[in-house]
Specification:
Helix content is about 25%, strand content about 25%. The chain is of the alpha+beta class. Bound molecules: 2-oxoglutaric acid. This is Chlorinating enzyme.
């Protein structure tokens, strides 16, 4: 078992995140990158915009990552042994593009209650200050949900450009990771990330999120897989794991899942981000 140590747990409780956690070797991370780029090459529209969600449903390789025992051991230390995979997202920032993520708290718009869940950000490439790694406002998870402006600003990778304004940058810490390492962050920590100013892509594969089976979706419907333990609550629709890349059956269920996710991200909003 590679559970979090008591120091790591303390770090998570005090700061709202813990990192780095070793998950994959650099070569294994590179294999994941190749899988992502293989999908982008063969199915060019599949991983654009909303297509960056629920990617584990169409690729056995990405699916396998979500069930990685090192990730699950660490997650279990935080949310307990009954764990569901409730969504994945690729946060890709290509060089020379305007992608950034405004400061926000995930719990504000994702509809998962209570907050017995944690987000795992796995670095597929290195993530550093030059290529726009996440910046965390340590300790901000201890406060309530803050006001978020819906800014819809160009390049913002968040759906509605949800933004906590006036975050003191000097109080935020860059979350630097090597390819294959992961961070875990709390539902209410304020975090964001800047532009990629390097010459290569920055890719994060994010399990968004691992949830305890006691967590409900209060804004709509999400599709889950059992990662560990039992689901006696049965709040969510369970889906089966993919056995081959892009099977038509998996594509269909992913489309449903993504349509439902859009309804969660845009409740009552007619304006949508340009994809
Ligand atoms: O990848 C990024 O830069 C931001 C990701 C993020 O906001 C998240 O995983 O909650």
């Amino acid at each position: 078992m590679s559970k979090l140590t008591s120091n790591q747990l303390q770090e998570y409780n005090d700061n709202g995140y813990v990192a780095p956690i070793e998950v994959l070797t650099k070569d294994q991370a590179f294999e994941i990158r190749k899988e992502i780029e293989n999908i982008e090459t063969k199915w060019p529209n599949e991983l654009k915009g909303a297509g960056r969600n629920y990617v584990h449903m169409i690729s056995p390789i990405l699916d396998e990552v979500c069930h990685n025992s090192k990730m699950l051991d660490a997650v279990e230390s935080i949310i307990g042994k009954n764990i569901l995979i409730c969504g994945t997202t690729l946060f890709i920032k290509n060089p020379h593009e305007k992608g950034f993520v405004s400061f926000h708290q995930d719990a504000t718009y994702i509809g998962l209650e209570p907050h017995n869940w944690v987000t795992a950000w796995l670095a597929i490439t290195d993530a550093n200050e030059e290529n726009g790694c996440m910046r965390m406002w340590s300790g901000s998870h201890k406060d309530n949900i803050r006001h978020h402006e819906q800014k819809y600003d160009e390049g913002n990778l968040l759906t509605r450009g949800q933004t906590v304004e006036n975050v003191p940058l000097d109080k935020t810490t860059p979350l630097v990771l090597k390819a294959g390492q992961m961070s875990l962050h709390h539902p209410t920590i304020v975090h964001g990330s800047g532009l990629n100013k390097s010459k290569d892509r920055r890719i994060g594969f994010v399990i968004q999120s691992y949830i305890g089976t006691n967590v409900e979706q209060v804004l709509g419907k999400m599709y889950v897989q059992q990662a560990r333990g039992d689901d006696t609550f049965k709040y969510h629709q369970h889906t089966k794991r993919p056995h081959k890349i892009m099977s038509s059956e998996d594509i269909e269920i992913r489309k449903k899942a993504n349509d439902d996710l859009q309804r969660i991200f845009y409740p009552g909003f007619t304006k949508k981000r340009d994809l």
